[in-house]
Amino acid sequence: MARKFLFRIFRFDSEKAENPYFQDYYYEEEKDKVVLEALMDIRNEQDATLAFRYSCREAVCGSCGLVINGEFELACRKRLNSLKTEIIVIEPLPNLPVLKDLVVDMEPFWQALEMIKPYVMAEEEAVEEEKEKSLWLSSPGYRIEEKEMEAIEPFTNCILCGCCYSACPVVARDERYLGPIALAKLYRYIRDPRDQRRFRDWEKIGTSAGLWGCDTVFRCNEVCPRQVNPAHGLLALRRRYLWEKIKQIFRKEK
After folding, report:
1. CATH node for 3-104
2. What is the CATH number of domain 107-253?
3. Mean pLDDT, residues 226-249
């Protein structure tokens, strides 16, 4: 039996001088579908002006992150038959500027990631006396031990959907804050044995806009669609930061 839904979708166009509003669309599901498929049907059959973002449709690219009935979800994997109500309220990700309808500007999110240099820092960026070691570590044939990979593997599962950044209460009140996944990814690279960045390369994140801004309410862990648990990486990075600071103190005393 077909199930009928009322889609209440956020509408807004940043290029027009109008206030945001919600628009209702009635939709009948003839076979089991995900929310993204329903949005595509609504756009194709009812309103061609409706804007939303998607790409892979396999919960890999992260581009279809939305707030569905108050929950952060990937529209391509949230099935309509899993919803307990026939009224579906769909909103764009918060903490990011809305460009049009459900499409947000991800630039603040990308800028935060860029600040932590999310890549393995190779030998040319290491200190001179470590170049020989760096060349060996960064060579294509370097093998990471299994236990070392286990420490960083969870943070490599991030699909950059932005849900953790959008759900973060600190980002909501402080636009300077880097956000959970940027800091968790920094820990991922610091723990990578091939990475040659020095403490002074990332020491600057020890501020209220970085490591010490987090409220540790673990909201980022709750909303992550891939169970990356960014807060765990952030807390581990805090411990590493303090350890590096202690080592600096002992060096000065000597």
Report:
1. 3.10.20.30
2. 1.10.1060.10
3. 95
